[in-house]
Every structure is written in structure tokens, then in C-alpha cells.
Amino acid sequence: MIEINNITKLYGQQRALDGVSFSIARGEIVGLLGPNGAGKSTLMKILTCFIPPTEGDATVCGHSIYDDPLGVRRCIGYLPEQNPLYTDMYVREYLRFAAGLCGVKAPAARADEMIELTGLTPEANKKIGQLSKGYRQRVGLAQALIHDPEVLILDEPTTGLDPNQLEFVRQLIREEGQGKAVLLSTHVMQEVEAMCSRTIIINHGRIVADDPLNQLTAGQLTEKFHKLTN
Ligand code: ADP
User: Fold this and answer.
1) Probe ligand 1: pick from 18, 36, 42, max atoms within 8 Å of CB?
2) Residue 173 domain boundaries
3) From the CA of 1, how far away is ligand 1's center (Å)?
């Protein structure tokens, strides 16, 4: 569902991605691991058509990022790192708005469904700006899932959450990720162990490992990560 072919991205002289290739099939939840500055967000921004690559190409659900960026975006649910929500909007109002933008049929009913699914019912009539980090993250996930996309791209979805929120959000991603292709970035090893079926390690813009997770324990993965990224 996601095909990435030899992607390179230069920011001026800075090589943020250097010949990255991999593919992700339906049903996979892939953890993209890497130290800060490795290129994780850049790759996600390219896949979601926010920025173009310098070289290489990619398709999402068969749509090219060059020829059909709208087609790409339609089949992706994206949670950016700085989950940019309209803080002056009410939760329910925002999700109805998001559903409308995505062209969902019956946006109000779909917004209510997502509120229930993401455990936002007690917060639904609050302004987004009044919510805790964990609940804001749930709103971001509800928005990413609202059009039932085939692909989910989540940039550090659980950063800054307390343990209860963390478990809830992980469970939600595991459940909602079934039958989709999911790419999530993190630098937390336990995150990968808890959610992913495969892990890709990226360092200085290059893929340095790509393993099915059932072949590695979290300890082995941690060791491998340090060896490959130091
Ligand atoms: P990660 O998400 O893994 O922390 P990023 O993709 O954000 O990494 O960044 C990869 C590299 O590209 C870093 O060295 C970062 O400083 C650089 N970079 C990211 N965005 C820009 C930009 N808009 N302009 C210049 N350099 C950038």
C-alpha cells in the first residue's frame, strides 16, 4: 500500500534523506525508529505530500505523490508531530468540520462515532485548547481516522502522554491499524514492542535495519539500535 523508491531529500546542503526505499503492505504496523534528526518527519511529510522529495518517488494506494497528491491524501490519515488543532474550536465541532472537509457522508454522525471510539465523550463539549495533552492527541487521532483511511501515518503519536493515556492510545492504534498499513515514528523502543509488527531503523537519512519484530526481543532491538545509530 506504501511504496517508497529511492527517496532523497536535500534541505540546502543538508541531506535529510539519502536513497530511502521500502514498502508497507496492508495489515503491517511499521515502527520507524531513529534518533532526533534522522529524517523520520521528513519522510512522513513527503509521503503525505506536504513537501516534495529532491529525488525518487513514492506511491500510496497506487497514487503517485507527483501525479495524484489529492488521491494520496484521500487514502491517508495523518497525525503530524505538532498535532495542529484549532484550539478555539469545540471538540465535536472540530471533528464535524474535519469530517466535512474529508467529504464523509453524514459528518455529524461520524464525528460522534469517533468521539465514542477515542474515549472523548466527557470532553466533547470542551474547547480543544482546554484539553490535556493526552486528550488533544485523541482528537488528533480521531481526525486522522475520521474518513476510515487505508493508510495511517503517525508522527510520534504517544510523545508526552501519561501512562494511562499511553496505554489507551497504543490500544487504539493497534485496533484501528488492523487491515490498514500503518507507519508510525518513535524513538521509544517499548512503543515498537507494544504496537508494531516490523521495525525500520533510520540514521542520518539512511535505512540501517528492517526487521520483522517477532525476530527480535526489545532488548536485542535496543542493542541493535544503539550499535547502528551511534
Ligand atoms: P526526525 O523527524 O527524525 O527528528 P527530521 O526529518 O525532522 O528528523 O530532520 C532531518 C534533518 O533535516 C535534520 O537534520 C533537520 O535539522 C533537517 N531539517 C528538517 N526540516 C528542515 C527544514 N525545513 N529546513 C532545513 N533543514 C531541515
Assistant:
1) 42
2) 2-229
3) 25
162 — pLDDT class (breaks 50, 70, 90): confident
Question: In this model, does residue 220 exceed pLDDT 90?
Answer: no
Cα separation, 194 vs 174, whole angstroms: 9
Give 45-67 pLDDT, tens digit per residue. Answer: 999 999 999 999 999 999 999 99
Q: How many domains does the chain have?
A: 1
The CATH number of the domain holding residue 199 is 3.40.50.300
Rounded to whole angstroms, the Cα distance separating 61 from 46 reads: 15
Percent of all residues in the chain with a pLDDT value above 70, rounded to a whole number? 100
